[in-house]
């Protein structure tokens, strides 16, 4: 059932909706529609934080909706796996085949032979963990640990503060010192930038910790271009300074925290000199950053995700997030920290599959290993909201797994992605402009209802429709289960806590928690069991193989000395929209590293390590630190000369906490490709 608001041959009109893509901001959108087609996408003023402007990525989202790569019909594979050759079938045929193969797999090996794989294609509450979870849990399928992003920071934030609500974008201008750590708002979460600029105009100082000279790093008072993976010793050196030289807030530590002495012990070895040597930065600049932080209030840390994507990522995030507690930066507007605010709404979603017994858990970062496993084998892989062939570490192992003859792969997608090319059955999915969604921001406090603005292209269907119908076809539908998209949306709204559900139903927007601008330790408090900040979680100390706050050395070798990073770009949201044209992709390298290898701008190079190889031109510039090279996040195979992306070079090892991805632990060598 579809309830779009437009019909053909209508005059141009504007529909206000919301962007649910995997970006912190969740902009309100004004979408212009004429004759049933999207003609423009712009910012709406409905959300005061996103304030009428949006990124260039989503401005061109209509090119995805109507582009040549859009999947319009269900199809079955007719060529070799990966060739992208398909024959059109009806929805009835496609869904019957999928249901039949899932039941066959369950009967032969048990439900765990079915692996659903999804992540972040939409960040909303409707397209993931609703009827999809009901289907797979009732089948007894393997469960996916969705850890590719934010798992280490989430574990750190939960242990320290119980995911306490953090500082709103609107309160950033009140800060007198802003620390941007592992985050580049000029590319992701762009609506934070004007608030930082306003703070700067009012005299705030800015510190940026990032291996690259990002636009805001260029303007910073202090830029610490740390070697990837060394954020932990840098943060611990600041803790050491606070404890040893008097910047620690003894009264706050005594009243509001526990574990401070254990943190102090682990920070003790990290002098400025030692940490700076490990991070490849200037010890004087590190001391200056610590002194500025200790002596300035309100001081705000915007903690991102760049520091989490390595072997030390959990402890690094924890050490960074612990700084405002040790330095006593809470209790004032504009002071404290800001991280993901999505948990602030108190939406636990405990209704999903809570009656089904637990099953095997597969860490999504180790998909290649799972596809090699035989205990039981993954016989059916059902991919939705994800382009795993492009986004998962150890790409070669993943592609080898997808090519298995005995693997039945279903891909439910909007466009012909790298993953879709490996499908046995291809199911066309609606975009967020063709379906309902409940979009929850993880930067600002925003929760809004998105609605379809046009009819689905071709025969595309929403997740609710497809998973609901599969539930029926495998004989697991039960009385009371929602039928179709509208019912699913109403069902979720009815389960949301008051007043969120009624607000969304009646006004399309929920009232922000804590007044939308909470002051930490004044309006909101840690949600830990004793309401204190746990600076040294014993559970996390046990989880981290080397121990909490314990640095694991750089994995580079003389053969592979360069750290490869894959930061977000201005072209894609993760890998979404990568089907659209973009400038040639180049490896970014510091001039010193290029000269040492005899490389010049535009040279064709191979970037390689024992896991794989990427071939592309090189770009030489000082906006990346020596010893580090960079390729954009979210590339597709077509973007490089040999059909592999940076993930072909990334290990499938896990972070110390949270089971996160270690993308930034890739160590590589680069050499010219001789013509
Ligand atoms: S991707 Fe982010 S900045 Fe772009 S429209 Fe969506 S929420 Fe706004």
Plain-language structure description:
It is a single chain. The longest helix has 19 residues, at 91-109. This protein has 21 helices and 26 strands. The radius of gyration is 25 Å and the shape is globular. It starts with 12 loop residues before the first strand and ends with a strand. It has 675 residues and is α/β, with parallel strands linked by helices. It has a six-stranded mixed sheet with strand order 5-4-17-16-15-6, with helices on one face. A six-stranded mixed beta barrel has the order 21-25-22-24-23-26. The protein has a five-stranded parallel sheet with strand order 10-9-8-12-13, sandwiched between helices. Strand 18 (437-440) and strand 19 (447-450) form a beta hairpin. Mean pLDDT is 95; it is low at 1-8. Bound molecules: iron/sulfur cluster.
Quick rundown:
By secondary structure, the protein is of the alpha/beta class. The protein has 21 helices and 26 strands.
Count the strands?
Answer: 26
Which kinds of small molecule does this entry bind, naming each only once?
Answer: iron/sulfur cluster
**Mean pLDDT over all positions:** 95
Number of continuous helical runs: 21
Rg, Cα atoms, Å = 25 Å
Strand content: 15-25%
Shape: globular
Helix content: 25-40%
Sheet with the most strands: spatial strand order = 5-4-17-16-15-6
For the biggest sheet, the summary is:
6 strands, mixed
Unreliably modeled segments? 1-8
* Computed structural class: alpha/beta
Ends: how far apart? 57 Å
How do the strands and helices of this protein lay out in sequence?
Layout: E1 13-18, E2 28-34, E3 37-43, H1 56-59, H2 61-65, E4 75-77, E5 86-88, H3 91-109, E6 114-117, H4 131-139, E7 143-145, H5 151-161, E8 177-181, H6 192-201, E9 205-209, H7 215-219, E10 222-224, H8 231-245, H9 250-256, E11 257-258, H10 260-267, H11 272-279, H12 283-295, E12 299-303, H13 313-327, E13 336-338, E14 361-363, H14 367-372, E15 380-384, H15 388-391, H16 395-402, E16 408-413, E17 425-428, E18 437-440, E19 447-450, H17 463-473, H18 485-495, H19 500-507, E20 533-534, H20 538-543, E21 562-565, E22 587-589, H21 591-596, E23 604-609, E24 612-620, E25 628-630, E26 667-672
Parallel strand pairs: 6-15, 7-14, 8-9, 8-12, 9-10, 11-20, 12-13, 15-16, 16-17, 21-25, 22-24
Antiparallel strand pairs: 1-2, 2-3, 4-5, 4-17, 18-19, 21-26, 22-25, 23-24, 23-26
This protein binds iron/sulfur cluster.
